[in-house]
Write a structure and sequence with these properties.
Layout lengths: L1 H26 L9 E7 L2 E5 L4 E2 L2 E2 L4 E4 L2 E8 L6 E3 L6 E4 L3 E5 L5 E4 L4 E6 L2 E6 L24 E3 L4 E5 L5 E7 L2 E3 L7 E4 L2 E3 L8 E2 L10 E4 L1 E3 L5 H33 L4
Length: 271
């Protein structure tokens, strides 16, 4: 009975983490580029009550008797499916249609990756550069900051479907800026580490970033100007998952209550 108390407690702890994860998904339902997370569980150690060599009536048992000791959270897996396209009135909003990620330079000088394309043109001295809403510079295919040529306003900028930057001059002619969005893919995007502020960091599990501009083995992503990628969280599915997690939590709670009642009865046997 004591075993059942601790086993049910592990179930309550695991389901609490599951509810926390679902709550985070629902909280980010309107976050640009957010990817849904799913809680994965795994069983804990098993205790042998009888081994396969135990004899009964002179015969060996082919199957052992084991009792599981509960569960725990194994991982929170990100699901990198495409989010819905949301039209925007800002021409500095961009959406990736495909498996790629934008590259930005963090405050520590390291390169991070994001699916959130709500960028802005920021003036830094005599330079106007494309940044995230937090001021982190967006990088091109060569790892350089994307900047405007002198005398060119942000309203003149045009970004093509392949991520190339250009602008229209005073005569209405198109001029190529010789810069393109740095779009990168990963062999295992689920291995990217979340840093907050919609930024993702490279890990050994994710593999090295693969530049779409230089890797011909990748399916190129397209860039849509004037659109943002919405969250891929499905509210109805998350509400169902929340109900299931709550019911599992309640079942484990009742298992603890039942074990407590059995212990109480055992303690009262001498009365």
């Amino acid at each position: 009975m004591m075993r059942s108390l601790y086993t049910a407690a592990t179930g309550m702890i695991a389901q609490q983490s599951n509810v926390d994860n679902i709550s985070n998904n629902l909280a980010n339902v309107n976050t640009v580029g957010y990817k849904q997370q799913k809680t994965e569980f795994k069983s804990l150690l098993y205790q042998n009550i009888q081994t396969r060599t135990t004899t009964a009536n002179g015969e060996e048992k082919p199957i052992s008797a084991q009792v599981g000791l509960g569960t725990r959270v194994a991982a929170n897996t990100s699901i990198y499916t495409q989010g819905a396209a949301m039209a925007s009135e800002s021409m500095t909003d961009f959406m990736i249609n495909g498996d790629g990620f934008f590259a930005v330079r963090g405050a520590d000088g390291e390169t991070y990756y994001t699916r959130a394309g709500n960028f802005v043109w920021a003036v830094n001295g005599n330079t106007t550069r494309l940044t995230t809403v937090d001021g982190y510079p967006v990088l091109d295919t060569n790892g350089n900051q994307i900047t405007l040529p002198a005398g060119v306003s942000s309203g003149q900028v045009i970004v093509s479907g392949d991520g190339s930057f250009g602008y229209t001059n005073a005569n209405g002619a198109y001029v190529d800026m010789n810069q393109s969005f740095g779009i990168y893919q990963f062999n295992n995007p689920g291995g990217l580490e979340k840093e907050g502020q919609n930024l993702l960091a490279v890990t050994d599990a994710s593999g090295e970033p693969l530049n779409e501009a230089t890797n011909n083995n990748l399916v190129r992503s397209s860039v849509m100007q004037g659109y943002l990628e919405g969250s891929n969280v499905q509210v109805a599915d998350e509400m169902v998952n929340l109900i299931i997690a709550q019911r599992a939590y309640q079942l484990n709670s009742k298992a603890i209550t039942a074990s407590d009642e059995m212990l109480e009865q055992a303690n009262n046997l001498r009365r």
